[in-house]
Design a protein that fits this description.
It is a single chain. This protein has a five-stranded parallel sheet, with helices on both faces. 53% of the residues lie in helices and 11% in strands. α1 packs across α8 and α4 crosses α6. By secondary structure, the chain is of the alpha/beta class. α3 links the parallel β1 and β2. It is globular. It is built from nine helices and five strands. It folds into two domains: 228 residues, 3-Layer(aba) Sandwich (Rossmann fold); 34 residues.
Length: 265
Amino acid sequence: MRFAAALILISTVFYSSIAGADGDPGLNPFLAKSYDETRDVALHILERFPPDQYWYVGLGRSPTPITAFLELLGVDGITTLPLSGMKSFDGYKDLPKAELRSRLYSHFDSWLPSAMDLDNRKLLLIDYASTGEGLVTAMREARSFAELHRPGTEIVSLGLFRMEKTKEALLANQIIPLQVPEAMGDAMVYSAFDKVAKMQSWHPWDDTRASLTTRPEHQAFKDFLSEQMARDRILQRFTQNRTSIIQSRVQFDCLSKHLRTLLKK
């Protein structure tokens, strides 16, 4: 009963945060497009940045649906990094830059995977980019941190954005333009997913890490998302095809090993 009530509650919160407080039923397609975009982006990430080569890091609250979707698909190399306000990092004057950077690096050290966990994988920083400046700053600082504390770790960024708003030159690494900007793009711009994010925001100048715990609303959101995924035929076909490809690779590897053994005799 409590589980059902939680699903009803989170679907109401999730829908209201996107459709508006009045819950206008005419905006239902908005929610559907947001799910489709989430699935398409998540599957694109899996294909373009394979999980055996990359560890996914969702920056802040905006990528919540993407990271939740990937976790529900069984990806284990994924981290939600509470981080906000990096667009203002360089211009913040109320604290010495050395103190800000010390707090930020301590935060990175607490949340980013160890070299052992990475196992030679690259870190992929994922965020919604309105101008791209915050993501570029976060990537720059993460790379500087890695040089000191995760030597040899390669870090790349992945910006999810609306083509007409982002300064493309700022995102020199990887970009996925959103195909339905009025769905996920607007939801991210207007912080629709903040209420169901895994953790609250964190700024280097606040340093409120003690309160960074997983919120119950996030698990309820994942339960809600899991129900949508279970009914998704496109996702089922993708999973079946991927399983077949993996099985074929395993069979090919076994056959190759067998042939090499025969050739040695």
